[in-house]
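Handout, tutorial session.
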Amino acid sequence: MFWPMFAVAAGFLGLSVLGVFAVRVFVEARRLGLQVSESAHRINRAAEDLERAAVSATRSAESL
């Protein structure tokens, strides 16, 4: 009777450990997704700023 109970307890413990790791992976993947999204917004803002600066430089060059 000891070995079947031990096997059930070990199986439950193994599933619990896997569950904890799954939650940690989910949380880290979500954080990574938020960081990627924020980086994309920053890149878009920088691209818009660069475009505005290029238009301004073109106008300045044309006026010369």
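The second record follows below. Compare its token runs with those of the first.
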Amino acid sequence: MATPESNLGSTIFSAIVPAPFGYVGVRTEHQYISELVYLPPRFQDKSPSDLVAELAAQQIEHYFADPDFPFDLPLKPVGSEFQQKVWKAIASIPRGEVRTYGQIAKHIQSAPRAVGQACGANWYPLVIPCHRVTASGGLGGFAHHDDETGFHLGIKRYLLRLEQVPEYSKPESTQHQEAMW
């Protein structure tokens, strides 16, 4: 049964693409992708309403089938100069690797907290893979969320496993048992 939230999604997104954790909402504006949003399973898929949304949907599906797939989408320019600097650094992290907020901060001569804020403000998750940025002592937050059992950190864990990041590629039950020791 459709919820009011899922119906609203069909009006504000140009496409809603199924993902292993729920959906990815795609918003377009004037031949650009203007936003990608992680959506929970209560949403419903929506066929692309324009060519740019169709391109995004195809590339998102390719990524989930092969995390080495390189995105090539027309992204609407957004963010401050600082955020763009952080996002450029994040985009250079290879699949299968992570960097800490501190490592990114050192690379761009900033502070880890500022890097975390820029990561959380990322309009294009997956394309700019902010899930590849972790805290020095563990997973860290994701999309301005840090609830250990929440939806967004579940997505971050899933994406790191999909990309075969060694410390996140083990089954979750094994990770939990090792954390207890």
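Points raised in discussion: Residues 4-65 form one domain.
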